[in-house]
Design a protein that fits this description.
With 74 residues, the chain is an alpha+beta fold. It has 2 helices and 3 strands; from the N terminus they run H-E-E-E-H. The N and C termini lie far apart (62 Å).
Length: 74
Amino acid sequence: MRGLLAFKWIVSITYEFQEPKYMDNRKYQAIDLGVSNLVSAVNLDGKFVQIKNRRADQYWKEKLEEVQSKRDHC
């Protein structure tokens, strides 16, 4: 078993490719990465997308406050 651990393999793969030519389609989008919302984005057509981020600590915050309130009133 000890002899099997002595072998190390390294594989390196390289390739070349031609980058596609840049084409401006005149469609742009503004993206805002935030804390309370994971992502807010709007494009030139006015379409708005918002992905809310319900953080784990915020999920438990309400439950902890409820238990702490009961504890404090004992």
